[in-house]
Amino acid sequence: MTTSDSASSTSSAAGPAGPRPEGPDEQDLEQHFDATIARDQRIEPRDWMPDGYRRTLIRQIAQHAHSEIIGMQPEGEWIMKAPSLRRKAILFAKVQDEAGHGLYLYSAAETLGADRADLTQRLIEGRQKYSSIFNYPTLSFADVGVIGWFVDGAAICNQVPLCRSSYGPYARAMVRICKEESFHQRQGYELLMTMMRGTDAQREMVQDAVDRWWWPSLMMFGPPDDASPNSAQSMAWKIKRHSNDELRQRFVDMTVPQAEKLGVTLPDPELRWNAERGHHDFGTPDWSELQRVISGDGPCNAQRMERRRTAHEEGAWVREAASAYAAKQAKQSERARKGAAA
Ligand SMILES: [Fe+2]
Ligand SMILES: [Fe+2]
């Protein structure tokens, strides 16, 4: 991954937003922005950017942040039921990582002028979405492994190209997130390997979890390209680097040999290697199911939102205490500054 900070910023030319009576006019700024994108350089927070670019990024980053936070729930349910202290500690650490990913991403959205409290409000009022995958239930401990393998695996396919996204803070947040996601994927696979070496009942649990999570995981990449109207603009702005269908194909090609090694069957009779294309052919996900889940009618939508709302309400005192502490600290350092100046 090449995400070095050497990609130059455009801030020197464009300067911060705000009135600029003698500054360059909008057309110049836009040309400069386009040229920066064309040179594969980064747009930074203080650079001029088109409103549509800013809006698209805020929506995408917020949706990504919400997914990380809601994504803590399906596996979080298994922390208390994990079969050993070791598995509990691993799962605890993984779920905590997801909270961290949410925080980096909310911070990246704030560099675009979004307000984190407002984004949270939009989530809990259902005005902003999160990934459809987290609206499916985790029925056995094998689901924890399959989520690591499939869901974190799909996240890696989606997010590694985002390390080269045109918006600097988003791209840089992705570098660390991807490292952790790849660790998550391996822990999921290792858990499944262990279960596959166990009893028949454990092997059945793994196969059952694979059967339930395979198609929803393919849907994580979003609708097919011809039904994804925003993709072309996002790709032109280099926010997104590959289309939904390309990424889905990449995920299938990556996962098939892993499934063989594990000894499970992927539940798709149309899945086969196509030597001519150099890729696997596979069946069509049930797009009407994706639509249903996205529009709020998945198996666990209501439960996920209810829990998020409750956690937000119950966390009010923590936010108040943190704000009061920050205000006190600010006052103290202000006093110290005045004291030093006097
Ligand atoms: Fe994550
Ligand atoms: Fe993860």
UniProtKB/TrEMBL annotation:
Gene Ontology BP terms: phenylacetate catabolic process
Alphabetical UniProt keywords: Oxidoreductase
Region of interest (Disordered), residue spans: 1-30
Pfam families per UniProt: PaaA_PaaC (PF05138)
Domain of life from the UniProt record: Bacteria
Entry keyword annotation includes Oxidoreductase: yes
GO cellular component: cytosol
Positions with biased composition (Low complexity): 1-14
EC number, as in UniProt: 1.14.13.149
GO molecular function annotations of the record: phenylacetyl-CoA 1,2-epoxidase activity
Enzyme class: oxidoreductase
Keyword Cytoplasm found: no
Protein name, entry field: 1,2-phenylacetyl-CoA epoxidase, subunit A
Lineage, uppermost ranks: Bacteria, Bacillati, Actinomycetota, Actinomycetes, Kitasatosporales
